[in-house]
Design brief:
By secondary structure, this protein is an alpha/beta fold. It has two domains: about 5-180, tm_1862 like domain (pyruvate-formate lyase- activating enzyme, Alpha-Beta Horseshoe); about 185-245, OB fold (Dihydrolipoamide Acetyltransferase, E2P), CATH 2.40.50. It has helices at about 10-15, 20-25, 50-55, 70-75, 85-95, 115-130, 145-150, 155-180, and strands spanning about 35-40, 60-65, 100-110, 135-140, 185-195, 200, 215, 225-235, 240-245. The strands form two sheets. It has a five-stranded mixed barrel. Strands 1-2-3-4 form a four-stranded parallel beta sheet, covered by helices on one side. Helix 6 packs parallel to helix 8. It is globular. About 30% of the residues are buried.
């Protein structure tokens, strides 16, 4: 399920958040193995969607939620409609309501007006939130945007790059720790493609092209697009290694 702001589904036609109802109906369709939600917006987040994720086995324990920053100064400049405290509270609520959920977010560095203090708050937020999946990008001063029309691009490019590198370095250590905890576990995987030495698959916690892959040792033939149980045998920060679990006879 993909939309620029999926959590607003229903407000235009029904003047109410209808995403939880939609997902529940889709989850009941025979043959629907996985339902994945992209992209949630933190403002006016429909809490009932967490119950739907928790109660339906074929709704992936995964949520892509666009946060971009955490300092009150930057959230106000970005017009995000949420503050630091509310952001922390939302992350805590999601994790409490859906144990084991994997959260993906994207963060921005170098937005006009971002101070060293703002950036330090962002780094600490990444340490605190321990996102299972996270990306970062430097601000780009693009014509036609609110920031372009109202702010000067006052953070030097080299500072933007340094901040992005530091943020991703922190995330890399977190991602490795999270992945290493999966070694020895049996996880359901969908196979996407075949390469020379491995089949390449994904867990319910991974979207195609942006999230980690599972490299499955070629011990026997596997079919593209099919689901298999895989035992995780190794981990890198952004990839897992595994072997096919033989089905009981």
């Amino acid at each position: 399920m993909i939309a620029q702001d999926l959590t607003y589904y229903g407000l235009d036609r029904y003047q109410a958040h209808k995403l939880p109802e939609l997902i529940e109906r889709l989850a009941k369709i025979k043959g629907v193995e996985w339902l994945r939600l992209h992209y949630a917006y933190p403002t006016a987040f429909p809490d009932d969607i967490l119950r739907v994720i928790r109660e339906n086995d074929n709704v992936c324990n995964y949520l892509d939620i666009a946060l971009q920053h955490v300092s009150d100064n930057m959230l106000k400049k970005m017009r995000r409609g949420i503050n630091r405290e509310q952001t922390y509270d939302l992350i805590e609520k999601i994790r409490k309501e859906v144990p084991g959920i994997h959260l993906r977010t994207t963060l921005m560095v170098g937005h006009p007006g971002e101070t060293e203090k703002d950036f330090e708050e962002l780094v600490q937020f990444v340490r605190d939130a321990r996102f299972e999946r996270m990306g970062a990008f430097p601000y780009s001063h693009e014509d036609g945007t609110y920031a372009y029309d109202n702010y000067s691009d006052d953070v030097p490019d080299e500072v933007k790059q340094e901040r992005m590198d530091e943020l991703m370095s922190v995330q890399e250590r977190i991602a490795l720790d999270i992945n290493e905890r999966k070694i020895g576990n049996k996880i359901r995987v969908i196979v996407d493609k075949e390469e020379d030495n491995y089949y390449i698959g994904r867990t319910e916690y991974d979207s195609p092209e942006v999230d980690p892959e599972v490299l499955i040792e070629k011990t026997e033939e596997m079919s593209i697009g099919e689901f298999y149980d895989v035992k995780i045998t190794g981990a890198h920060p952004f990839d897992l290694y595994g072997t096919l679990v033989e089905k009981e006879s």
